[in-house]
Amino acid sequence: MTNPGERPGGADARRRTTPKRLLAVLLATALLTAAGVAAVAGWPGGQSLAGWASGSDRTEPDPPAPTATPTPAPTSPPTPTQTPGPVREPPRPLADRPAIRPPQPPDDPAAPAGDFTGWAILDQRTGTITGSGNLAETSTTASMIKAWIVADYLRLTADGGDQPTPTRLEQLRVIIRDSHNGYTETVFQEIGAHASIERLIERCELTDSQAVPNRWSNTRLSPRDTVRMGACLADGRAAGPEWTDWLLDEMRAVRGIGDFGIRHAFPEDQRAGIAIKNGWIVRDAEGAWHVNCLAIGDGWTMGVLTRYPEHLGYTHGAEICRSLAAEHLPPP
What we know:
The protein is an alpha+beta fold. Helix content is 37%, strand content 12%. It starts with 10 loop residues before the first helix and ends with a helix.
């Protein structure tokens, strides 16, 4: 029986149907949650949302494959069309020695130019100097001056109460025997550069010669000053009493390309007893060789200085030194 004012399915009906509705709501919520979880599973890498957010196990996608750039086929360089420069004749060897053009210090723009040959001989017993009519004219020494530079270093070191280190002594030996330019420059700067040449002029009583600032190779000596320097090396004024014999022995041991000139006027078995130091260089500004010879023998010193066109080669100057020695030195 129904109470008045009530519709069928009233309060009682609602009470009967509420659990069903609740169950339906719960079921719908569950379905939606499952759908959300399924959606989350589709994030990059199949990771959990927590994992993606924190980046704790994220793997970056592979970068796209690089597009290869084709390498052009190599082409041969064009053949240069240059006008060949002048051919420079290399120095010809003396006997079986190789032809070598030594490293060159800078040219001195004011260096004397033109052909020149001058020579002098000093008799150490009398002090008499004989020679060519131009024996007072100067020319650049090139490596010939290295004998003085080594002597000056040794004397100054001894005067200061010191000894050269074994390394330095070996460098001095190579300067004399092999004409090493790098070691020469080092020693030259240590002893005051051109101040050393000024000491040479004063100590060995030279009259014609001149130092060129900071350029040992461009030192200007005359033939007669060359033999005065030789006498100074021989009598001990240059290197001092402690080192003179050592220096002369090293000058007797000159070897290789620097072994030419005056002592080759003597029989081979006598050459080893003659101390020498030669100089040779091409002065590019002049296009000329400067080839010079110094020799110290038994009671004599001889100097020869030459300048001449480059195309003649350094052996031209070497032969001048030898032939003048053969002509003017007393026979052995």
